[in-house]
User: Fold this.
Amino acid sequence: MSILALPRRRARRQGKWQPRNVFGHYRLPRPASFLGLLILGFAAVVLPLAVALVVAVVRSDDLAGRGSVTTREAVILTRGLQQLSSQLVEMERAARQYAVLKDMELLDRLMQHHAGFQSRLAELRRLGLSAPMRIDFDAQAQETAQAVAIALKKAQSGQIDDAAIERLAGSGASLVEMRSIASRHIDAASDRIEAEAAALRRVVTVQVVGSLVLAALLIIWFSSRLSRPVKQLTAAIHRMGTGDLKGSARIDGPADLIAVGERLDWLRQQLAAPAARRG
Assistant:
């Protein structure tokens, strides 16, 4: 027999030895009271569900914010491209009229539409398009801007011709392509948000199910921790009631129940003392 086992066996006979816990070097610390054990059990059951709920709310807010940004960009792109198309038609009309009438008021109108066109085009090019779409969008925007700039330059010099006007009118095809690029950007952003929302639903489902399973296990464990000292106390009182004063009234549980067990054991000893003297 090992020498180290002798103190352990002696402590077991005296009722002082406690087995070591697999989670640490010794048993987990006992709660100070029965109420403390109840509160600890409630917190352990509720905490996983609360964490899962907080994670779901945070990620849902993030998705909602990104969806709002995507919607706002979609509105800006759609409205901006419509305005570009309208301004391009107005510039073409003003350029054709100016080529015939040489009226400076028409030239001023052409310049005003050009300024609005450039401002709106710059606003659209600042949106957060993905890299491949941005390259295509910028190329089409640059082609449209060059056609507009050439028509305006020739109009200002009084040398506007049908070729410049036709190139200005043909730049509408670039706007159509820009509208197609914008639609693909909106669809891609929407698909990403939908995919992340589906992933979030799966994660939340796993978290909730896992939290419920963990809560059920914790409930079972805490139920055993709560019921064991009560059963021990009930058994000790029953033995004393039937006249069995030999067994020790030891209670394993919260500190206040252990104190009750110690007082009950003191009472057992006081009741057993006269019988021992008579014997």
Remarks:
- The CA atoms of residues 235 and 241 lie 10 Å apart.
